[in-house]
Specification:
Helix content: 25-40%
Number of helices: 21
Distance between the termini: 39 Å
Radius of gyration: 24 Å
Largest sheet: 6 strands, mixed
Shape: globular
CATH class of one domain: Alpha Beta
Strand content: 15-25%
Oligomer: single chain
CATH superfamily of one domain: Aconitase, domain 3
CATH architecture of one domain: 2-Layer Sandwich
Number of strands: 25
């Protein structure tokens, strides 16, 4: 099934004219980012937009929402007075499934626990013409890559890792629910014109190195704030050598450097992926406008002239990296990891190793990891750490089950979890004897801030490629280097793991029995959306009063957040996700993870009315009761 085919035809038919107009306007060659941005302005452009200064109205092609953030967004949309969404939109049920026992049991528990929310989401999608992906269908970003992303398009999504779509040369940006509502209502979406960071990739990866190591390296270079206000554009022969899903991995984790989004330029790898996922027509259309889906030739010749910052990485010499703990930009090459463990006193024993998730959901990731698991069995090795596998979509899960990879993981002690976010966002009932004990986990996820995965401040979380994480699960030690170190098997023999092998795409093609997709009604006017008045999960909203036309004055500072202030610090996931559709209840979670600039503590701010210190939500409620407005200041957002 090909989604949005007529929309894509329209985008491509207009693309050459819009790009040529932008070239003339700027009077110079263009990067791919500029081609997409200038071809998606809400109104015709009459003058160049200054990067980093001008706010621009854009017209995205599509909106994607996950089930946690979709609740509030659709409650807001319900007050707009429209009968259908103005642009193609989708909802993906991936955030509310807690990983605890295993895929089947956890999914059944989620269906029971969240039935009220799932019923609400499916009915409101049906009413307003929104695609609905059922619980178990997969993680929003993987499903979007498989079905919706297309080269040269623009998508916004209510999740930080929406930039995953950049693996298909799409400007895909994570936004708040209110932004999604604006676009679904037919309004322009405003964004400060981003700067453009170019990453030139040369050479080709081999051995243990994977696409994940590219973004781990970039994170070490740019840090968690180095990409703020910028789009990162990857190009060069090295970029063209990376699989489409590998490109998506790099773009996905680009959120951890603060980038607006990341993207790669269109190439044969993307065309191959479009074809194998049933979108040959899209590949043919994209091939017809290929020159407009890549930077102009002059950009390749002299990239320093066209990018605001240029980074060059030689894939021939790039080695695997391990990033962490507590921040995704503390990058350590695998060759230096043992020394770093000893020097910093990090717990060497790996208690849990977790692979896949939305960042590394591909057939390539899983087949390469499974090759290591298969070696372990042949060489008399088993996992020394708990080992979990979280497929990114039902299509991927079904295909890897068909091809025997899930059985391979099972044979060395792996546990397959539901096709959902799970431990990556803290939806994980972790088994640990002492929650205060310093411990180490290693994941192939994207974020590793304190408490991110299991809610425990004592957990040292490290991020690496699925291949390295699988090797770590077998070794059980953070100081282990699979490129050089040997392991002792059941017979007492010393053996080494061979380099991983795998397939970029499944040789037999993808397969799935039920992808989990529900199309909306052609006419949703008679569909009833029910929210119980006493619900603790959902709360209907009233339209906000119109702006009175005067300046906002006499506000109080609620909190100035110090240092990193991600969506995790603003509104933690985990157990709080159940309140994402209830404005009053979720407000009790607001900014409780942010560090107060003035006292270095979390969830403790001064009430300027009483002089007393208290929790952020309670202090805000006191201001609200007194009719006083407040503001929040972020340090490194």
């Amino acid at each position: 099934m090909v989604f949005d085919l007529e929309l894509i035809r329209k985008v491509y038919s207009n693309l050459p004219v819009k790009v040529q107009a932008a070239r003339k306007l700027l009077n110079r060659p263009l990067t791919l980012t500029e081609k997409i941005l200038y071809s998606h302005t809400y109104n015709p452009v009459s003058q160049p937009h200054e990067k980093g200064r001008d706010y621009v109205d854009f017209a995205p092609d599509r909106v994607a929402m996950q089930d946690a953030t979709a609740q509030m967004a659709l409650l807001q949309f319900d007050t707009c007075g429209r009968t259908r969404v103005a642009v193609p939109s989708s909802v993906h049920c991936d955030h509310l499934i807690q990983a605890k026992v295993g895929a089947k049991e956890d999914l059944m528990k989620a269906l029971d626990t969240n039935s009220e929310v799932y019923t609400f989401l499916s009915s409101i999608c049906n009413k307003y013409g929104i695609d609905f992906w059922k619980p178990g269908a997969g993680i929003i970003h993987q499903v979007a890559l498989e079905n919706y992303a297309f080269p040269g398009g623009m998508m916004i999504g209510t999740d930080s890792h929406t930039p995953n779509g950049g693996g298909l040369a799409m400007v895909a940006i994570g936004v708040g629910g209110a932004d999604a509502v604006d676009v679904m209502a037919g309004l322009p979406w405003e964004l400060k014109m981003p700067k453009i960071i170019g990453v030139k990739l040369t050479g080709k990866m081999s051995g243990w190195t994977s696409a994940k190591d590219v973004i781990l390296k970039v994170a070490g270079i740019l840090t968690v704030k180095g990409g703020t206000g910028a789009i990162v554009e990857y190009f060069g022969e090295g970029a063209d050598s990376i699989s489409c899903t590998g490109k998506a991995t790099i773009c996905n984790m680009g959120a951890e450097i603060g980038a607006t989004c990341s993207l790669f330029t269109y190439d044969e790898k993307m065309a191959d992926y479009l074809k194998i996922t049933g979108r040959e027509e899209v590949a043919t259309l994209a091939d017809g406008v290929k020159e407009f889906l890549r930077p102009d030739a002059e950009v390749y010749i002299d990239p320093v002239k066209y990018y605001d910052q240029l980074i060059e990485i030689d894939l021939n010499v790039l080695e695997p990296h391990v990033n962490g703990p507590f921040t995704p930009d503390l990058a350590t090459p695998i060759s230096k990891m043992a020394a770093a463990v000893a020097e910093n006193g990090w717990p060497d024993t790996i208690e849990v190793a977790l692979i896949v998730s939305c960042t590394n959901s591909s057939y390539e990731d899983i087949s390469r990891s499974a090759s290591i698991a298969a070696q372990a069995k042949l060489k008399g090795l088993k996992t020394k750490s708990e080992f979990t596998i979280t497929p990114g979509s039902e299509q991927v899960r079904f295909t890897i089950a068909r091809d025997g990879y899930l059985q391979t993981f099972d044979e060395i002690g792996g546990l397959v979890l539901a096709n959902a976010c799970g431990p990556c966002i803290g939806q994980w009932a972790r088994h640990i004897d002492d929650p205060n004990r310093k411990n180490t986990i290693v994941t192939s996820f994207n974020r590793n801030f304190a408490k991110r995965n299991d809610g425990l401040a004592s957990t040292h979380a490290f991020v690496a490629s699925p291949e390295i994480v699988t090797a770590y699960a077998i070794a059980g030690k953070l100081s282990f280097n699979p490129l050089t170190d040997k392991l002792k098997n059941e017979k007492g023999e010393k053996v080494m793991l061979d380099e991983p092998t795998g397939y970029e795409l499944p040789p037999k093609g993808f397969d799935v029995e039920d992808a989990g997709f529900l199309a909306p009604a052609a006419d949703g006017s008679k569909v009833e959306v029910i929210v119980k008045p006493d619900s603790q999960r959902l709360q209907l909203l009233e339209p906000f009063p119109a702006w009175e036309g005067t300046d906002l004055t006499d506000f109080r500072l609620l909190i100035k957040a110090k240092g990193k202030c991600t969506t995790d610090h603003i509104s933690m996931a985990g157990p709080w996700l159940k309140f994402r559709g209830h404005l009053d209840n979720i407000s009790n979670n607001m900014l409780i993870g942010a560090i107060n600039f003035f006292n270095q503590q979390t969830d403790l701010v001064k009430n300027q009315l009483t002089g007393e210190y208290g929790p952020v939500p309670a202090t805000q409620r006191a201001y609200k009761a007194a009719g006083i407005g407040t503001l929040v200041v972020g340090d490194e957002y």
